[in-house]
Description:
Blueprint: H1 2-31, E1 34-39, H2 44-60, E2 64-69, H3 74-87, E3 98-101, E4 106-110, H4 114-122, E5 130-134, E6 148-153, E7 156-162, H5 168-175, H6 184-201, H7 204-219, H8 224-256, H9 259-282, H10 294-305, H11 309-341, H12 344-368, H13 372-384, H14 386-408
Parallel strand pairs: 1-2, 4-5
Antiparallel strand pairs: 1-3, 3-4, 5-6, 6-7
Amino acid sequence: MRKLLNKLALSLAAVAFVVIPLTHSVHAEQQFGTAEIYYNEACSGCNVYLKDKLVPFLEEQGISVTLHDYVNVRSSRRDMNDIQNSLGIPYELQSHIMTFLAGGKLTIGGHVPLDIVADALNADELPENLVIFQDQMLEMGIDPEKVEYTVWQPEFAAKSYPLAASLNSYLDDWRGNRLPKQAWQQRSILPLVLVTGLLDGINPCAIAVLIFFIAFLFTLQSGLGKIFRYGIVYIAVIYLTYLAIGFGLLKAIIISGEPHLMAKIGAWLVIALGVVQLINHYQVKFPFKLQIPKFSQGTLKYWLTKSTMPAVIVGAFFVGLCTFPCSGGIYVAIIGLLAANNTFWQGLGYLLVYNVMFVAPLIVLLALAANKFTLGKVAQWQSEADKGLKFWSGLTMIALGIIILIWFV
Length: 409
């Protein structure tokens, strides 16, 4: 009887040894089915992980794998970016190898160890659009004990774990509702964009030139219709010029792959410019000032005083370019922050809002142009309050830089 029981136990163990892995494979195949992998063919370390480990492993699970070399096939890079943007994957979790299973139901970014991938494939239930990210090339001899992997899902803040920790640690937190919702920074970005855009717009450079431009039209006794028409074009061109600068910065930061670094650099630049403003408040003769470069001031006045629509467009374009040195640190910091915490299209949306706030003071001044007396008072106030504005804008810029460094990057 004992021999019979032993044989039965051995038989059941043998069946389990065969059936359980097979069940896991069928489970993974049913759950995911396909994997689209975007990679760099020129990266030798990537190929070791990808072709020697990840692809064979996925195929063993019954998953059909399609490889896309985004270096030699330009359209593949565009497709990869489109998928990442549609899934809302933050830039800091976008790797040089991106594996999208079942159209993004599960995304593996970088060189995630296979046991962690297996945890995800074999899980009974996963959060929707889960991303597992680990970008270090462990195949190149990096000590795995010094490396962490990060797990992210659109509804929750990213969370990191040691490589030795199973993905089940994250899944247990998810099932127990112990994961924090998306970081509070996300809810704070819009107010920050509104405030900083307005702070950037209270810019003595652009405001002084607009007051000069409107006052000049009054000296020509131009009608209000012409003043408003030219003023609207002037503001629109400044808006588009500044937006184009921001768009270029956003693309450059994305390409650099270091949005957090650029946000930090921008924050320190804001602090430095704030210190310069404070020095200018106390030391008028300090050689470095936040203003339109002197060599360009004559050019701006020349174009604006011609009082023709083409001249207004050219003059406004130069104003948009030349105001960037006045407060460009704020712009760089905010754009770096947007790149680090949002998809490209979200970042672009915030950029549009930022620039609306940037030109808002100019819109208010244009509205005041209906009354020559009021406009004169504004010009007088701007001249008299210039020193005080430098003091308060300097303090605000320093505070803004510190806030970004402490709470956002």
